[in-house]
Amino acid sequence: MTAADPRPLTGEPVALDLLNTRWNADGEPQDLFAGAAGLTRVEGLAVWLETTGLAGRFRADAPTLVHLLTAREALARAVADPADEKARALVDAVLEHGRIRATLTTEGPGERTEFADPAWGPAWTAARDYLGLLDSAPGRIRACASEDCTLYFHDVSRNGTRRWCSMAACGNRAKAARHYARTRER
Q1: In a designed cystine with 87, which of 46, 77, 109, 138 is the match (CB 3.0 to 4.6 A)?
Q2: For the chain (length 186 residues), average pLDDT per consecutive 10?
Q3: Radius of gyration of the chain from its Cα atoms, rounded to whole angstroms
Q4: Can you tell me the distance from the alpha carbon of 13 to that of 128, in angstroms, rounded to the nearest whole number?
Q5: Burial of 164 (C-beta count, 10 Å sphere; 0-12/13-18/19+)
Q6: Contact 32/6 with Cβ under 8 angstroms?
Q7: Residues 87-112 as b or e (16 or more Cβ within 10 Å = b)
Q8: CA distances in angstroms from 124 to 98, 127, 128, listed in the order given
């Protein structure tokens, strides 16, 4: 049984969920893969695999973690600056470790992912997910508007104006700060 996920935001697409393995708590940087909440690095990986639904497909071990950290850095750079040619090359380097094979199943056409080294599976899956986000709605990959927050989300709101990772956390703090500033002016 894996430990509870200590991160403040989960459930985002896999690529963004990987980026959200780094966050701030009470002004202190946290990293799920570097001892956050008293977890070992590999325990943090196991929590992430479970949360993203990848636990049954991939192992939580040191080689998988190394490859996942490589993908996280590549994705962080690509999301921060989509025009960065070096960032695109880093993402492409991760994608080199897997492929999609077309198959014919009893239900019709299908696809199967293949990896020369299964330890690259979660990293490749996150990089491939990022391509899917870019293909469907690149303008809806967003960083939280809070200056103190490092989290990312995929804006699925109807009008595409979501600003906060969570209205209950960052959004509420911003509203409270605006209210406080207004009442002080009076």
Answers
A1: 77
A2: 90 98 93 93 97 97 98 98 96 98 96 96 98 96 94 94 84 60 68
A3: 18
A4: 11
A5: buried
A6: yes
A7: beebbeebbebbeeeeeeeeeeeeee
A8: 6, 5, 6
